[in-house]
Amino acid sequence: MATRKATKKSDAPRAARPRRTRVARSGASRKSATAKSAVRRSGVLLSGGNPQIAKADGDAPVRAYLAALTGWKRDVARRLDALVPRAVPSVRRAVKWNSPFYGIEGRGWFLSFHVFTRAIKVTFFRGTSLEPVPPGGKSREARWIDVHEDDLDEAQLTKWMRQAAALPGWDASSRGSEDDSS
Fold this sequence. Notes:
Blueprint: H1 27-42, E1 56-57, H2 59-68, H3 71-87, E2 91-96, E3 99-104, E4 108-115, E5 120-124, E6 143-147, H4 154-166
Antiparallel strand pairs: 1-2, 2-3, 3-4, 4-5, 5-6
Helix pairs in contact: 1-2, 3-4
């Protein structure tokens, strides 16, 4: 039998293979390093930089969610999270569907937010009952607002949070019975 010559690059002797050089990157590598460390803390970063956190009630899973965020999204999300108990002192927290939820014990959820690539979507589950009605949304009752790096209107959000907390909340066990996409 005749022997075959090596035809793949990997079959060639190590010295004969072309040497790869590393190119130094600027801020891009720092951002990816930060994202990688967040992935290690939370397990997985989903689309838009949203961390994958297991469903759980309480402050601890929300703190884990916030810690896993990166860059301006972490800063804005922490400000949102701090704003809720100032507006509604009796608030309870949970993480459901990879998003922090805020509600009143025995009354349901009134608010949630979710991280996307260019914005944080703050959803009021009974948003059509708020004054003024938040601008985003086409579902039956939920309305939302997209918050970007530099446009967090704390005064307006506080008003909406107080109004939303006074309304009957959304019951997560009925998810799917309404056309709410949040």
